[in-house]
Amino acid sequence: MAVTARTYDASQYERPSVTVDVVIFTILDSELKVLLVKRKNWPCEGMWAIPGGFVDMNEGLEEAAYRELREETSVSGQDVYLEQLYTFGNPGRDPRTRVITVAYFALVGADKLHLPEGGLRAASDAAGVGWFSAYTPPLLAFDHAEILEYAITRLRYKLEYTAVGFQLLPERFTLRELQEAYETVLSEKLDKGNFRSKLRKSGAVEATDAYQETGGRPARLYRFRDDAVAEIKTRRLFP
Amino acid sequence: MAVTARTYDASQYERPSVTVDVVIFTILDSELKVLLVKRKNWPCEGMWAIPGGFVDMNEGLEEAAYRELREETSVSGQDVYLEQLYTFGNPGRDPRTRVITVAYFALVGADKLHLPEGGLRAASDAAGVGWFSAYTPPLLAFDHAEILEYAITRLRYKLEYTAVGFQLLPERFTLRELQEAYETVLSEKLDKGNFRSKLRKSGAVEATDAYQETGGRPARLYRFRDDAVAEIKTRRLFP
DNA sequence: ACAAAAGTGTTGAGAGTACACCCATGC
DNA sequence: GCATGGGTGTACTCTCAACACTTTTGT
Q1: Does position B204 have pLDDT exceeding 90, yes or no?
Q2: Where are the domains of chain B?
Q3: Mean of pLDDT values over A168-182
């Protein structure tokens, strides 16, 4: 019986390793991007993988996720959305030993990233880190393709039910940029007028007095209103 | 850097213990109930807790959850809904050692439970297992109150967005029973007419030719249609 | 006949959708 | 002027929510 197994001396049990992996998304060039790192060790040496690492013995899980995020992107906790995604623990997912991975997913605004000189290309070749299209990633190590797929599914749900989408954009953005972000994540065309009127009614954004040149009429820049949102008025879907 | 830390010899790291806890819900006497077990060891000896146990080295997480479920309720995998809930891993949540708990939540139909003789009262006193009102549980061990709260929140979401609610009821049920199940979980009165008409349109249930006596006009018994449901047509809520 | 519970129908208000239209800027 | 993109309004449709109503049983 499980309860009796929970004795004081837990050390008699062999323990698995526990890691935290973070699927980091952003939007660049109107595309949904994910951050990947190149593995330097066996197994899967040279393959791309979702960044992650072992959980320190005195460190909380979320704490570890923030640490990974900071190590890979130099982005502080204030500037990101971070959420636990799922825990993957099939025996055999890592050939070395039993590894249980608590996966997180993170949304980072493109303006928070200070890209290295030479841009993305140079970064991905030299440093072994790079942004990849989330829908057409390279071959990934371990079961990371499954983790990425799961993260994309969750991101779509989140986008439809909450207002986290803003975390993917720079602090000030045009409404077209916001709509394009939604369209790329959802892979679906949206109606301009309806998108804007719903947005206006929700009170989630406020206009700034700055404009951005676009080739036609300049577009007003908007800002996300973090006070008014958080909870989207949710309606029961079933039954 | 995290990536370099992922070397072959993972044994150099101290490893946490990993357990799986399962929050098991059912509906009895028009109330949402949760299964709790009485702890027999230090710490928290004698307190009620969510059933759980260590993950075996060659056992998947979900596999472990099904095992717990079977051990506590003798219910097979076919007859339940099981879903991963969240992973709790704050250092210090267990005073003995670092324990990371992958929590699952399960929905079991009341007809699947073969209650011991003497009913609930006897069971909870003697065997150290019992069903408790989920909204007014006893004082729980460790951070299990938090886990239960989280499970209830998730259950409500699930009920509104999907058709899992049927898993809480016996195979054949009256529409009033179904509505009462929804009302207890959501803590909210629903309109009879609207509830029924939406349910009819969704095609989620089908009538049987059996009836149940109720004190007034006999109520028709319905059955869940597992083919037609699964995916509730979801509409974007934001923006 | 009356109470109790099952089961259906109606109607006004509000949300969603498609689409057309005006505005400001560069060439 | 005209192309390009920003920004708004309208009208039709459908769903939602409150409430009234009919039907079938037991006493």
Answers
A1: no
A2: 15-161, 171-224
A3: 93
> Is the C-beta atom of A123 closer than 7 angstroms to strand D?
no
Q: Establish how many alpha carbons lie within 13 A of residue A202's alpha carbon, considering only the half-sphere containing its beta carbon.
A: 24
Burial of residue B139 (CB within 10 Å: 0-12, 13-18, 19+) is exposed
B68:A2 CB<8 A: yes
Q: Which two tokens stand for residue A189?
A: 């065309």
CATH 3.90.79.10 given to domain A15-161: yes
**Rounded CA gap, B59 and A1, in Å?**
16
CB-CB under 8 Å, A10 with B17: yes
- Does any strand D atom come closer than 7 Å to the Cβ of A233? no
Q: Which residues of B20-54 are buried (b: 16+ CB within 10 A; e: fewer)?
A: bbbbbbbbeeeebbbbbbbbeeeebeeebbbbbbb
Higher pLDDT, A163 or B24: B24
pLDDT of residue B238: 76
A104 Cα to chain B: minimum distance (Å): 11
On the question of pLDDT at A169 being above 70, the answer is yes
Nearest one of B104, B106, B102, B124 to B115, comparing CA atoms? B124
Residue appearing with tokens 């004698």:
B46
pLDDT, position A77: 79
Query: What pLDDT digit, counting tens, does each position of A6-36 carry?
Result: 444 545 668 999 999 999 999 988 889 999 9
> Which chain B residues contact residue A204 at CB under 8 A?
238-239
**Average pLDDT, stretch B144-148?**
97
> How many angstroms separate the CA of residue A207 from the nearest CA in chain B?
16
- pLDDT surpasses 90 at A124: no
Question: pLDDT at residue B97 above 70?
Answer: yes
Nearest CA in chain A to B61: A89
Tell whether the model's pLDDT for residue A173 goes beyond 90: yes
CA-CA distance, A38 to B79, in Å (whole number)? 44
Check: CATH 1.10.10.10 for B171-224?
yes
SS3 B67: helix
CATH 1.10.150.120, domain A167-224, yes or no: no
